[in-house]
Design brief:
The complex is a heterodimer of chains A (151) and B (571). Chain A has 151 residues and is α+β, with helices and mostly antiparallel strands. Helix content of chain A is 36%, strand content 18%. Chain B has 21 helices and five strands. Chain B is elongated. Classes of the chains: A alpha+beta (151), B mainly alpha (571). At the A-B interface, helix 1 of A face helix 2 and helix 18 of B.
Chain lengths: 151, 571
């Protein structure tokens, strides 16, 4: 059954395969193209370096007119990531544009790891540490980097 | 024709200009080749349907976020036509390009049979026709194989394909040259092989080459190639499923401009008027083409007698001229006259504007171009002020189904308005029947999506409930040590509560009676009560029973440990 959203997701997949941006990878579940697993490698020269963070992207038939729901499956310690793994990222909410594709979403999340926005904190503790005690922040992030290798 | 999942990355990296063309002809929203291209005031182009759907909810350009509205939308007809033509020839072009990179094979003519609806005027009939042009020969270096087994006919085919591509897209020429320079390894021999090949071909049949040298790079339908009289059957004019097949095949298939089904060329107008414009399905699709060809002259004759067209269609079939371009080009040369006739006829019998438009579009390649008429679009409705009955009436007016609740009817109406208005922007509009079919598919998808979301929400609720239950269980376990310490000390400090009593009551009576009696175990009891309520609601009773048993077991072990510790201490 081909619908515009599914066709678009197939295109996104093809694009991601043929021209993958560095440090991200993603693929739909074999039995459900609306559900994607993705991995973001922690960007270099950040505390997240070497982390392999798994995400789950859930699309529906309104894609690409509406953004998918994106969640970290791996444990995350980041000012803009909620305890349940959900993200506070403008392009996944009010700044969404239907021109974005999966590669764009994952790249944005990767750059969010690089540049957290402590002004709209989803994790108050992480935001505070990021602002006031960068050393402790880095230590906590390194913890989640190490746990990200386990599962 | 554009149903595969295509992407600019399909083009080999050596042909990067083609990649760029491909990606520039794509809608940034759906990433398909533009359909009914629309330009906003910020000069960004989108499919009409995509941008309409977006502007229903937002008022910014999806690409640059500049404030905009549906009033700012302008049809970009030229771009739309380019995108359409590119879509038509894409698969063939891609095949040609990829083949040119791989080592030469002798199955080359077969590739041409894949042509979908590409306009291969030059291809089949003129296997012996030659046009010389420097850029073409540069092209053929990458395309034709330098091996000596190549027959003259094959070269002819490949060359004319190259010609066709060149006419369609000059950028291609650049890229092909690029590739030939990139593939030095092969191309050193090839680029020299090209001209020699050509001259060899020329030598093999010099009179024809001289005879048919056409210096102007015009399309073949203005320059008709003389046909060998030994081939009276009309060769394929426009690519068919069997494009380069022997010219003895009597069927000349073209793609219907409305429904894009393959139909005999002479049958086009009949097909359009009888079926496509009326939104009917042509039963002839199921009939073999030979049969159509037998019937066509009769149908066309009656059709002619009705005087609804001035187009000379019978000429090309009945007399079965071997060059189908001639009559059609002559009629197209008088394109103004034809379309005037059609407009006049149309207004006299009161046909729909869509009909006029498509009639004109079917000759969109003619030298005389008609202005693109703006079709009447369906205005949007203020659904808030309509009640269910009025909405139903509106749906019925459009000939749409009116079942379902108000929300569904509203969605259906809005979707239809979007696809209908988008269709008005297309240079190759679909029929109303096709639109309604699309709407039906949309509705099925929409309802299925609603269902999936409902299921997901339920699962989420269950998951949350389960988490709460686990939380409660965690509470009860954390409450354990305290209660067991109390219990354990009870033996020493003679508290009224006997620990064994507590556990045994619980053990015997099960979860429901376990709750109320124990004053000291309030925490546990409340937690358990809450959790068991959840468990009941969620039908997780079995699972929960295990949990309780586990809690008790741990309680028991704890107590025994403490008791034994106490006794050892006492000793």
């Amino acid at each position: 059954m081909s619908t515009p959203s599914r066709r678009r997701l197939m295109k996104d997949f093809k694009r991601l395969q043929s021209d993958p941006p560095g440090g991200i990878s993603g693929a739909p579940c074999s039995d459900n193209i609306m559900l994607w697993n993705a991995v973001i490698f922690g960007p270099g020269e950040t505390p997240f370096e070497d982390g392999t963070f798994k995400l789950l992207l859930q699309f529906d038939e309104t894609y690409p007119n509406k953004p998918p729901t994106v969640k970290f499956v791996s444990k995350m310690f980041h000012p803009n990531v909620y305890a349940n793994g959900e993200l506070c990222l403008d392009i996944l909410q009010n700044r969404w544009s239907p021109t974005y594709d999966v590669a764009a979403i994952l790249t944005s999340i990767q750059s969010l790891l690089h540049d957290p926005n402590p002004n709209s904190p989803a994790n108050a503790e992480a935001a505070n540490l990021y602002r006031e005690n960068r050393k402790e922040y880095t230590r906590r992030v390194r913890e989640v980097v190490e746990t990200s290798w386990e599962s | 024709m554009n149903r595969g999942i295509t992407d600019p990355s399909d083009w080999p990296a050596e042909f990067s200009p083609l990649r760029e063309i491909d990606s520039n002809l794509r809608c940034p929203i759906c990433k398909e080749l533009l359909r009914a291209a629309i330009m906003l005031q910020c000069f960004h182009n989108f499919c009409s349907e995509c941008i309409r759907r977006h502007l229903d909810k937002e008022s910014t350009c999806p690409a640059c976020r500049v404030q905009t509205s549906t009033a700012q939308m302008r049809r970009n007809v030229a771009l739309d036509e380019i995108a359409n033509s590119f879509g038509d020839c894409r698969s063939l072009l891609l095949k040609t390009v990829t083949d040119s990179l791989s080592p030469p094979k002798h199955t080359k003519p077969a590739q041409l049979s894949r042509a979908e609806s590409m306009d291969l005027d030059d291809l089949a009939p003129q296997t012996k026709r030659r046009r010389t042009s420097s850029r073409i020969s540069s092209k053929s270096t990458t395309l034709s194989s330098p091996t000596s087994q190549d027959t003259v006919e094959m070269n002819g085919l490949v060359d004319s394909a190259a010609e066709d591509d060149n006419d369609k897209d000059d950028d291609f020429m650049v890229s092909s040259q690029g590739s030939s320079s990139i593939h030095k390894g092969k191309s050193v021999s090839r680029s020299t092989a090209g001209p020699t090949l050509r001259s060899r071909a020329g030598r093999s049949e010099p009179p024809i080459t001289v005879l048919e040298k056409t210096p102007e790079p015009a399309r073949s339908w203005t320059t008709t190639a003389p046909q060998p009289p030994s081939q009276p059957a009309s060769p394929s004019h426009v690519a068919t499923a069997t494009a380069p097949t022997p010219p003895t095949k009597p069927t000349t298939l073209v793609a219907c401009p409305v429904c894009s089904m393959g139909i005999p060329e002479a049958y086009t107008n009949t097909h359009l008027d009888r079926f496509c414009f009326r939104g009917l399905k042509d039963p002839a699709y199921t009939i073999s083409f030979e049969l159509i060809m037998k019937q066509a002259p009769v149908v066309i004759e009656t059709y002619e007698r009705q005087g609804t067209t001035t187009r000379d269609v019978v000429g090309s079939t009945a007399s079965n001229t071997s060059s189908p371009q001639k009559p059609s080009s002559s009629s197209l040369g008088a394109g103004g006259g034809y379309s005037n006739g059609s407009v006049a006829g149309g207004s006299s019998d009161g046909s729909s504007p869509l009909q006029h438009r498509t009639m004109q579009l079917s000759i969109s390649g003619s030298p005389v171009k008609q202005p693109y008429p703006e079709l009447k679009r369906i205005p949007k409705l203020a659904y808030g002020v309509l009640n269910e009955k009025q909405l139903r009436k509106k749906l019925l007016e459009l000939g749409l189904p009116c079942h379902g609740d108000k929300q569904l009817m509203q969605k259906r109406h809005a979707e239809y308005v979007t696809i209908y208005n988008a269709n008005c922007d297309a240079t190759r509009p679909q029929t109303i029947t096709q639109l309604k079919k699309t709407l039906q598919i949309w509705e099925e998808t929409y309802l299925r999506d609603l269902d999936t979301k409902l299921v997901q929400r339920r699962q989420l609720e269950q998951q949350q409930a389960r988490q709460q239950a686990e939380l409660a269980q965690a509470k009860s376990t954390s409450a354990d040590p305290s209660s067991s310490t109390v219990d354990a000390t009870s033996s020493a400090v003679s508290t009224p509560l006997s620990s064994e009593g507590a556990s045994s009551t619980g053990g015997e009576a099960g979860s429901s009676s376990f709750v109320p009696n124990q004053a000291n175990n309030t925490n546990v009891a409340v937690a358990v009560a809450k959790a068991s309520a959840f468990a009941h609601v969620l039908k997780y009773a079995d699972e929960y029973a295990e949990l309780i048993a586990d809690v008790r077991r741990r309680q028991q072990i704890d107590k025994e440990k403490r008791v034994s510790e106490d006794t050892t201490k006492a000793e």
